[in-house]
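Appendix B, record 7
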Amino acid sequence: MDLKLKLSQCMIVKNEEADIERALSWGKELMYEQIVVDTGSTDRTVEIAKALGAKVYHFEWNDDFSAAKNFALSKATGDWIAFLDADEYVHEKDLENLVKLLNNIYEANQKGKNIQALRMRIYNLNEYNILQSGGLNERFFMNTPMIRYKNRIHECLTSLDGSIIPGIVSEEVSILHTGYQKSNIVSKSKSERNVQLLLREIEEHPQDDEWWCYLGDSYAIGEEYEKALKAYGKVIEHWKLRVDMRLFALVGMIKVYTRMKNSEKYQKKVVELYNKYRTLKVNNPDVELVVGLYFLNINKKDIALQFLEGTLELMEGLEDGNMAVHVNANLKLIYQNLAVLHKENNNLVGMVKYLVLLLRLYPYDVRALSILLESFYENKESVEGVYQFLGNLYDLTLFKNKYYIMKTAKAVKYTELSEKMWNIMTKEEQEYVLEEEKNKK
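Structure tokens (predicted):
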């Protein structure tokens, strides 16, 4: 892959030994140089980065992410910057498209265009490595002294003369982010740090209400719910921000009311917030979802069912993934709950619909498959019909799928299906199963 411009990869790190090798390897052959700015690691991050050939610099942490990132930019000598965090990377299959994009930008600029940034979508990976929705952001941009980061936290790229950075948007290349796979302990530790930084931003920029949204999130992660409600409440009270920030605060408050003890006491407040949302005259799946989960939490299942199904209806044809960050991150939970609610209402068709949707995302979710097989057994569905149905979900030529279904069927006492899966196995596969069963005894 021949990249026509010099690309400097930059990142700031602290204790990233688990991710730093991948961070410096995914596009190494494209990079003119790799710059790592360490802000105080006590693990092997620096050692690994040096071993991989990166230029490592040290920056004394001063509670300012933008300052650290701008220090890294000052060390870059390439034409363009690739500024990804240590827990972000471009998938190997997208590298060729990335080269084409950057080469097209280079050629366009050579002909007089002025493209200084490339906006692309960042997808969060959950604990199952399933892609979730994410927002658009500039991670690739021109190396010029006029482009720098601003804000102590929730830093964003800006032009020093106040103008909009000219750029293009591309969906051809995606950045994958694994940060949400980290433990709750790590998340809470970061939230405590973030609270202090956000309070400083609020003190210095009291007119910027959006900082209260971020502060509410940090308090909520740290389980300081009363403080979170107060922070979100500032936004609701002022009601002057962009619509996306108002939705941000509404979703945050409803989630907090759901988590609080005796959450049923806050039903009136949740309804008031929902009515506030309706005044915005926008349809937002995330709001519908958190309201549905609130009512499910207080055991008002019929209302929860309406909101959860309404959430999925709003998702149809939705173009802006930023309007459904929570929905995309919780599809498994939504499908699980809808399947259970329909089962409790004796709606077999509805239950099967959502179990199938769940199994298409998570084919080896034993609980979902067990409920599905139990229902087929209880309703005396023909084994051949069930077998054909499962053939639409699984490749039944693969031994692992035959064995998985056989074991699950056996566990729910669906003997006929278990025997069917046994009978379609080859002799070698059957011998393997017998050996496995023997070793378990």
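Remarks on this record: Residues 149 and 157 are 4 Å apart (CA to CA). The mean pLDDT is 91.
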